[in-house]
Design brief:
Two copies of one chain form a homodimer. Chain A is of the alpha/beta class. Chain A is built from ten helices and 13 strands. In chain A, α1 (about 30-35) runs parallel beside α8, α8 crosses α9 and α9 crosses α10 (about 285-300). Chain A is globular and about 55 Å long. Chain A starts with a strand and ends in a 6-residue tail after the last helix. The interface of A and B includes residues 205, 218 and 259 of A.
């Protein structure tokens, strides 16, 4: 089944202690859509300016990412620039230029409206709701969010959460949203705001998944060398939602969500191995499956006899 | 098989944001020995003063913890007092009185010297080495350590590590020891200092296990309410070493070490549910096994068909 992905499409400049690169394809929807495309056809919704390279549209076509929902507008594409600390664990935004994103109003092509699976990648919750309202009757809605929206548009976020099947957020966001220091308490509390399932990302420490009376915990795939952490969270969300749409499709069980979380982690582990989407552009399903299996072996309490 | 445990035996005063209790049984060896006793007979080595309650010796006897190696000396027992932050994630030592521990020189009873399994719980590495030298030919040596020894007696620690099969330490200690920010790199580097296996504890985020070309990662058993984190690390080490001595006994494989790490985590999860050793005093193997199985289910990538 197809997955509709809406979010930001950006041109990034990223500085790590070792390298700096500009004009990189970035934005939550770019990462999420590409990760999802390894599992399901993707319908992309976003906005780009006249400076946005045509080559990316060609690339999307090659990956079965439908870009009919990407508006091309006079002006400059959304630009973001960030710099990472020496250990890559924290980053500072150097500049944000909204440009054509400032007046972005997502409009779904007719062919997108009956899609069953939706990923509302990280953008303002009002925009996420606006997309959801244009859809007929989505079967499973995944939403990502960030601290900015928890702090500045909490009302919009709370309204959205009533319609979300799986909310994805990181550990500090979960703590901020609930004022709980325990992530176990936080995850359970967030379910009371609406989402049936909650995934809490913990970066190098893995992720937690909460359902009704159900819980799953996994580590992160171990990596020695990380080149650019940008987009890891968006990739995780895209991998999760893509797997659910493409590989499961029907009724989603907690067991499906476990596997989806692992695929999200695997895709994110590839993402951070290179700048921008470079490592994600030409993966094979074999490489993804190999890493999934290796990850499973590393996490098994007992080995098969 | 039996496990020799050497470490500190203390009387603690612990203050959390909610409660404060004094004259609690504490110390690395007390926690480790009790946790280990659920899996194997324990031979305890330590020192206590004339103020140490006889009732604890009676309790040890009831748990098959041999206290022949515990010296009773004129004077006061080692005392430690600490206070936890509001979220229980950090603590401050309010006072440390070494008392009879100041001149502690571990002497092994003859009956301890041929024991196959040894846990050098957290004390000065010179004392840990001193114990090891009195042993005939231990089959498997587990050592715990802490930042104090990494900072102040690194030479002694490095000498000890040549003889250690499994080193247990926490994430900040692993980073300090290696100057690596990546725990994956840190774990692999520490093996080069001598220990064949390294377990890195990450508190609420679980633990990592490194062997030669082998790796295992597990989360922490999810707990909503923690009452007193004191001794969780010592209990983890005791559970691990006790399981290896009692349930495995023969040649230790990486698969055994995985299970040992889980049992260590399970015991530690009980430990923090009450002050001091209170929760550990009367567990049943059934309760331990139930939590092990629940933990396994929570961590499985795929559910059995």
């Amino acid at each position: 089944m197809s997955l509709l992905v809406v979010g930001s499409i950006a041109l990034d400049t990223v500085k790590t202690p070792i390298e700096e690169h500009g004009d990189l394809l970035g934005g939550s929807a770019s990462y999420a859509a590409l990760a999802a495309s390894y599992f399901s056809p993707v319908q992309l919704v976003g906005v780009v300016g006249s400076d946005f390279p045509q080559s990316e549209f060609d690339f999307w076509r090659s990956r079965k990412i439908d870009s009919e929902g990407v508006q091309r507008v006079e002006g400059k594409t959304f630009r973001w620039s960030g710099e990472y600390s020496w250990d890559l664990n924290t980053r500072e935004t150097r500049s944000t230029e909204l440009n054509v994103f400032e007046n972005f109003e997502p409009r779904l092509p007719q062919s997108y409206r009956e899609t069953d699976f939706v990923l509302l990648a990280n953008i303002a919750p009002a925009l996420q709701s606006h997309v959801l309202k244009q859809m007929e009757k989505p079967r499973f809605v995944v939403a990502d969010t960030m601290n900015l929206w928890i702090e500045s548009t909490r009302g919009d976020l709370d309204a959205l959460l009533q319609h979300v099947d799986l909310l994805i957020l990181n550990d500090s966001e979960a703590r901020e949203m609930t004022k709980e220091t325990s992530l176990i308490k936080a995850g359970r509390s967030i379910r009371k705001f609406g989402p049936r399932h909650v995934a809490i990302k913990k970066g190098e420490h893995g992720a937690l998944l909460f359902g009704e009376n159900e819980f799953f915990s996994c580590g992160a795939y171990p990596l020695e060398d990380i080149h650019d952490p940008t987009g890891a969270g968006d990739t995780f969300a895209g991998g999760m939602a893509g797997y659910l749409a493409g590989a499961v499709g029907g009724k989603i069980t907690f067991t499906d969500l476990r596997k989806a979380m692992i695929y999200g982690s695997v895709l994110a582990s590839f993402c951070v191995e290179a700048f921008s989407l470079d490592r994600l552009r030409n993966l094979t399903m074999e490489q993804i499956s190999e890493r999934y299996e290796a990850f499973k072996l590393m996490s098994q309490f007992e080995m098969p006899e």
